[in-house]
Amino acid sequence: MLKLLVLSLLSIILVACQTNSLPKIITSSTDLTSAIGYSSVALVYYDHNSVGENHLKPYCTGVWIDQFHILTALHCVKVMQQITFHNLTAENTHLPSLSQLHLHYVLWNEVAGVEQEPLAWHLTNVIAWDEAHDLALLLGPWQGAGWHSWASLGKHSPSLGSPITVLGMTHGYYWTFLQGWVSAYRGKIPGAEGIGFLQAQVPAHFGNSGGGAFNSAGELVGLADFILDIPDQTVFIDLASLKQFLHHSLPASF
Question: Is the confidence at residue 32, as pLDDT, over 80?
């Protein structure tokens, strides 16, 4: 169940997740791909098909920002809130609160290919969120989560024209890498005025929401939020907003 959230007529939300930090030096595209992959998660839900089988389907993306916490877009969490509500019995008439939700995620090395069933999945819950900036922080399990790394925040925002790499569950397929470049910075977008956004020439689609935008050093510089009604233009929550949210949510670490 993929949900479209329209921000005016011009924008569409992108919905279709032993530890080490990222390598300090990225020397090849292979290094960059691995670094981004191991610091990302696929947010998944159980899809019931016509013959009664259950399959884990990816609908959004997330980024590890330390050993235990995953950063994603809040609208991804709200999609799972709706899915959970629709799966409840008729006696339950209220949406579950965000803090009561249990989300499923899959790690980079737990899916063999874009059409393969995950080898394992894990539970996480929401511990902080920011409605204005469409951000949510998830707490992963302390044990049994498998091997993953985590992203380092960029030291500064990328300049116009600089390259970025994006990983997401594009159109509900696991692990699609996209590359492009920074095309604009926006302080005002219809439906989301007053929030800092990074706009990039990246052909993102539903399922990329919550996925990171990484610079050539493998640093996290944005988080995929929605697409504009302009060919291949994707809008990301900018680095300053990410830092502000993390400093407020995890002051001891950020």
Answer: yes
Global pTM?
Answer: 0.83
- HSE-CB at 53 with a 13 A cutoff on CA atoms is 5
Only one residue has tokens 């500064």, namely 156
> Strand ranges (DSSP E) for 109-211?
122-130, 135-139, 148-150, 163-168, 176-186, 197-201
Q: In angstroms, rounded to a whole number, what is the distance separating the alpha carbons of residues 254 and 252?
A: 6
CA 109 from chain centre, in angstroms, equals 17
Yes or no: is domain 1-254 CATH 3.30.465.10? Answer: no
User: Do residues 190 and 10 touch, judged by C-beta distance below 8 A?
Assistant: yes
Spatial separation of the C-alpha atoms in residues 140 and 93, rounded to whole Å: 28
**Separation between Cα atoms, residue 69 and residue 102, nearest integer Å:** 14
Q: Which two three-digit tokens encode residue 100?
A: 């009561």
Question: Residue 111 pLDDT > 90, yes or no?
Answer: no
